[in-house]
């Protein structure tokens, strides 16, 4: 039994989609900037396909049937953001605006954590600087009873 023409159309459509969409489309090739920062583009892929057809009888040749059909596909690549790696810190720089308050909070967590670390590092540096500037005090214990 031979393959039905619709099977060939669907197979060709799916093969073309596979050729267009691979993992490198979702997670792009890393780019290293002169300062050593690694930037990785991240995208969302949406695709769909449809195919259909029908066997048509022939009036001229009743023993033979004809096939009429078609297939189509669409692919959308939407950039979402960039993953940046710099100095041991990993950040997601989102392109699209935040959809909800929860998305905004999650997106701000790395920035807030960096600000808190900077604050504590600055306070520690101030304390250290203050200790270094104070003159050393000569403390001698005198016994008042002597």
How would you portray this structure in words?
This protein has helices at 5-20, 23-26, 101-133; strands spanning 31-32, 38-57, 65-86, 89-94. The chain has 146 residues and is α+β, with helices and mostly antiparallel strands. It has 2 domains: 1-96, no CATH class; 97-133. The protein has a 4-stranded antiparallel beta sheet with strand order 1-2-3-4, with helices on one face. The radius of gyration is 34 Å and the shape is rod-shaped. The protein starts with a helix and ends in a 13-residue tail after the last helix.
Brief synopsis:
The protein is an alpha+beta fold and 146 residues long. It is built from three helices and four strands, in the order ααββββα.
* Strand numbers in spatial order across the main sheet: 1-2-3-4
Count, helices: 3
- The number of distinct β-strands equals 4
User: What is the straight-line distance between the termini?
Assistant: 120 Å
Mean pLDDT: 77
Q: Which overall shape is indicated by the principal axes computed on the Cα atoms?
A: rod-shaped
As an assembly, this protein is single chain
- Evaluate the radius of gyration: 34 Å
For the biggest sheet, the summary is: 4 strands, antiparallel
Give the uncertain stretches in residue-range form: none
H/E series: HHEEEEH
What structural class is derived from the secondary structure elements?
alpha+beta
Number of domains: 2
Q: How much beta, percentage-wise?
A: 25-35%
- Helical content (DSSP H or I, runs of 4+): 25-40%
